[in-house]
Amino acid sequence: MIKTTIAILAVTFSAATSHAAMFSNGATLLEAKCAVCHPSSKVKVLKRSPEQWDAIVTSMMKRGAKLNPEEKKVLVDYLAKTYKPYAGK
Predict the structure, then answer these.
(1) Angle formed by the axes of helices 50-62 and 69-82, to 10°?
(2) pLDDT per residue as tens digits for the range 1-56
(3) Cβ count within 10 A of residue 8
(4) Each residue of 47-68: b (16+ CB within 10 Å) or e?
(5) SS3 of 82, please?
(6) Cα 48–52–69 angle (5° rounding)?
(7) Model's pTM, two decimal places?
(8) What is the three-class DSSP state of 32?
(9) pLDDT, tens only, 52-69
(10) How many Cβ atoms from other residues are within 10 Å of residue 7's Cβ?
(11) The pLDDT of residue 8
(12) Distances (CA, A) of 82 to 5, 40, 47
């Protein structure tokens, strides 16, 4: 009985950890959460500031994007670092 309980807890913890790790990556979030409604290529051509990305993600959440606050932060940070305006001379 105890071995069974331990095994069930281990599997449950492993699944929860895998799910959390999967969505701790901005690129994964972009594909899993944003590409549900539109191709990620639409996002990848935009070059925006961190504030602009935050506003865009907030707007998408109001339209139904399923992101919790932690996922939103990870996604906005990823987008702001990866798809930022060109800072040429």
Answers:
(1) 140
(2) 676 656 565 555 544 444 445 457 999 999 999 999 999 899 889 999 999 999 99
(3) 10
(4) ebeeebbbebbeebbeeebebe
(5) helix
(6) 120
(7) 0.71
(8) helix
(9) 999 999 999 999 999 999
(10) 10
(11) 67
(12) 44, 13, 9
pLDDT of residue 19: 45
Task: Find out whether 70 and 20 touch, Cβ atoms under 8 Å.
Answer: no
User: Can you say how many angstroms the Cα of residue 56 is from the centroid of all Cα atoms in its chain?
Assistant: 14
CA dihedral 17, 66, 45, 55 (to 10 degrees): -110
> Which carries the bigger pLDDT value, residue 17 or residue 84?
84
| Torsion, Cα of 82, 83, 85, 87 (10° steps) | 30
> What are the residue ranges spanned by the domains of the chain?
2-82
Give the whole-angstrom CA distance, residue 4 versus residue 10: 10
